Automatic annotation (TrEMBL):
Residues annotated as domain Radical SAM core: 24-273
Location of this fragment in the whole protein: 46 to 342 of 519
Name used for this protein in its record: FeMo cofactor biosynthesis protein NifB
Name of the coding gene: nifB
Keyword entries, A-Z: 4Fe-4S, Iron, Iron-sulfur, Lyase, Metal-binding, Nitrogen fixation, S-adenosyl-L-methionine
Top-level lineage group: Bacteria
Required co-factors: [4Fe-4S] cluster
Any one Gene Ontology molecular-function term assigned to this protein's record: 4 iron, 4 sulfur cluster binding
Entry keyword Transferase: no
Length: 297
């Protein structure tokens, strides 16, 4: 239920399956994979697959144009009445593909105005797009923040690409953390509910994530979702190839527990793919391939 949430926030989250633990039993989300490019390199990413910001690496999403995406949303919404949220979460970074991402939001807000819009980003270009995000009535934003210390960041991000220039190592990680935290502050100032995702990487940022938790809470983040690194070698990620392990379930829970007193923790994330459809934990994307949707008239 509402718990101790203020009513205006409760109204915004009560139908969002990721922002409300309770809602995820009753309400569905869908993602449309309209954003192929990315502007940073994460050591847990395999570019051939979905953005590991949110997604379980190892599955390839079907890439869509904004027009195909809008058609898919209508088809899904007419089949799954509990569909309340449309998210763009990859397969690259949505804000590295701003024309496609915002065109998709524009089309959907015209054809399906009741559907809430959700966006997940690595945050590098977020400050440049906050006004557009607000103008398109995007209700929910997720930023993946894995560090607030550039020395730790350099172990996770070999480079970032910003303003036509590549920044590597500590310099790149410093730029990324500055832009992420500024973007978060700007979203908070506009009243856009912002959730933080973090990937727990044992021996790299596991102890540091408590500090990340405090940094994002103090800047107004609403919810923190700490997810386990998935690093099977067959996914071909840098971490997978160097033998970096993911956390055990106990290690993950202990970290989530240690942050719980500071802010709301999300514990029901299913690390969805960039074209996921349905309730969290069920995947109905195979029912809505482009072939099938284009055949529906
Ligand atoms: Fe999608 Fe992400 Fe929006 Fe949810 S998923 S863009 S906030 S509508 Fe949700 Fe999936 Fe976890 Fe993401 S369970 S991976 S937190
Ligand atoms: Fe991969 Fe996402 Fe990181 Fe880009 S932001 S490198 S797509 S995990």
């Amino acid at each position: 239920g509402q718990g101790d949430l203020p009513t205006e926030i409760w109204e915004k989250v009560k139908n969002h399956p990721c922002y409300s633990e309770e809602a995820h039993h009753h309400y569905a989300r869908m993602h449309v994979a309209v954003a192929p490019a990315c502007n940073i390199q994460c050591n847990y990413c395999n570019r051939k697959y979905d953005c590991a910001n949110e997604s379980r690496p190892g599955v390839v999403s079907e890439k869509l144009s904004p027009e195909q995406a809008a058609k898919k949303v209508l088809a899904v919404a007419s089949t799954i009445p509990q569909m309340t949220v449309l998210g763009i979460a990859g397969p690259g970074d949505p804000l590295a593909n701003p024309a496609k991402t915002f065109k998709t939001f524009e089309l959907i807000s015209k054809t399906a105005p009741d559907i809430k819009l959700c966006l997940s980003t690595n945050g590098l270009t977020l400050p440049d797009h906050v006004d557009t995000i607000a103008a398109y009535n995007v209700d929910h934003v997720t930023i993946t923040i894995n560090m607030v210390d550039p020395e730790i960041g350099a172990q996770i991000y070999p480079w970032v690409f910003y303003n036509h220039k590549r920044y590597t190592g500590i310099e790149g990680a410093r730029l990324l953390t500055e832009r992420q935290l500024l973007g978060l502050e700007m979203l908070t100032a506009r009243g856009i509910l912002t959730k933080i995702n973090s990937v727990m990487i044992p021996g790299v940022n596991d102890k540091h994530l408590v500090e990340v938790n405090k940094a994002v809470k103090s800047r107004g983040a609403f919810l923190h979702n700490i997810m386990p690194l998935i690093s099977a070698p067959e996914h071909g990620t840098v971490f997978g190839l160097t033998g970096q392990r993911g956390p055990s379930a106990q290690e993950l829970k202990a970290l989530q527990d240690s942050c719980e007193g500071e802010m709301n923790m999300m514990r029901h994330c299913r690390q969805c793919r960039a074209d996921a459809v349905g309730l969290l934990g069920e995947d109905r994307s195979a029912e809505f391939t482009t072939d099938k949707i284009m055949a529906m008239e």
